[in-house]
Amino acid sequence: MGSLGGSIVRKPRFLCLHGFRTSGEIMKIQLHKWPKSVIDRLDLVFLDAPFPCQGKSDVEGIFDPPYYEWFQFNKEFTEYTNFENCLEYLEDRMMKLGPFDGLIGFSQGAILSGGLPGLQAKGIALQKVPKIKFVIIIGGAKFKSTKVADNAYSSSLETPSLHFLGETDFLKPYGIQLIDSYKNPVVVNHPKGHTVPRLDEKSLEKVTAFMDTIEHLVMEEDKNGEEKH
């Protein structure tokens, strides 16, 4: 909690969704590459995906198990298994651990985070929890399942969004497509691949400005909420 003009400012609360076949604990380590000045401004909750890893994890030998996955997919990434179960699980955890202001996702968690505001707006997911107000997407992409994508990106998303695009990330072209689905995206380009990048001076400026924006929006919303009561 901080104080701004005499009123108490709470930290924006974010649910963190990890990458494919990793874990909440691993994402915690990955995100803590960011400076304390950024991390300390957010209230972060790290969640494990609902399904134990069903194959080899790319992080074996780098990070310790256990590893989890959010849902499964075919070779073309166009058909999903357990996707509805994943949405139900997320809603349940958000009801128990929330309320949340936003989502931070990496890799498979970023694909989910980037599509959930649209699915929520369409009445397909997260109907029992407050609206997702912000998303931070690291190494993300659009859903490739037509059935899911048609609902997730049917209208331009007004959710304030921060996107990290890696120069050598294999998902970069798809990450750009996702950015095009958002009305006012903030984009941080970095020279690395499919990873949670460290923040250089320029990136830090953009991230700090985004933090200022969301803190202001959270404060305004909380103030309006208090005035209504």
Automatic annotation (TrEMBL):
SUPFAM superfamilies: alpha/beta-Hydrolases
Domain Serine hydrolase per the UniProt entry, residue ranges: 10-201
The protein, known as: Serine hydrolase domain-containing protein
Species name: Thlaspi arvense (Field penny-cress)
